[in-house]
């Protein structure tokens, strides 16, 4: 795995340091958030970033300043329930939403290959098929359903409804947990030092107690393993109370970039994560970059053109969409 970190402009603090320092400042993590936001569904509605600022109007001035900085690059937030599964649920919805909006059939075919490798990994580790097969099957079903043109194709509204349906949402979360556990066990020598530093347990004990059970919170070990196993880059933006200096306010982020062999492109340096999560100690939500809002308008228009079969205009829209994706993503790179 290749790690890329954005440091503060003056003090060079990395995101991991901020996580440790600020856990005490924010409270008890997912348990506290679950009590405070019990009305939040598994996956919430998209909200403007100003809704996040409203949470801290009477709180830390540093956080308010950092939310303003976030507003330079991000336009919206989608909350997830703080039940210990927030990372996996945020990843689930963000990834499937990306496929639905881009209709990335090549990406679907690519990740299906990775999913099959994950299945083989679990089998080689001694897992019995019936312990994980239903979870794998349901995730693959969601992949097919977000692609349009199938009898079972679903809308964005239906994707949101499914993500809020416990029978679907929890099964997909369990799929990710098994994939994560399999990757950690397969590469136990790589992950062992990180796990021992966090929990003073063996890799096997860590997977049994902190990865596979529902409700167990995720940290950088989980994110690294899932990103590597599925070949999906993930950006985590950290909203913390780390102090600022004369150089101004900055917001740290960390990019989890899989090994080149697991990516759709061999040049990992050119990869810009299309999944962006906001981390506040103990909790993950989904962040939406500003450029995604622009592309969504174009993609929505393209779907309408396809529906009415306006081929000339549709082809022109595709050219514009691909151009904008290439150049707007380039402008978003730090």
From TrEMBL:
The lineage of its organism: Eukaryota, Viridiplantae, Streptophyta, Embryophyta, Tracheophyta. CDD domains: AtOTU1-like (cd22765). GO terms for cellular component: nucleus. GO terms for biological process: protein K48-linked deubiquitination; proteolysis. Its EC number is 3.4.19.12. GO terms for molecular function: cysteine-type deubiquitinase activity; ubiquitin binding. It comes from the Eukaryota. The keyword Protease applies. Residues 75-290 form the OTU domain. PANTHER family: UBIQUITIN THIOESTERASE OTUBAIN-LIKE, UBIQUITIN THIOLESTERASE PROTEIN OTUB. Belongs to the peptidase C65 family. Keywords: Hydrolase, Protease, Thiol protease, Ubl conjugation pathway. PROSITE patterns: OTU. This is ubiquitinyl hydrolase 1. It comes from Dovyalis caffra. It catalyses: Thiol-dependent hydrolysis of ester, thioester, amide, peptide and isopeptide bonds formed by the C-terminal Gly of ubiquitin (a 76-residue protein attached to proteins as an intracellular targeting signal).
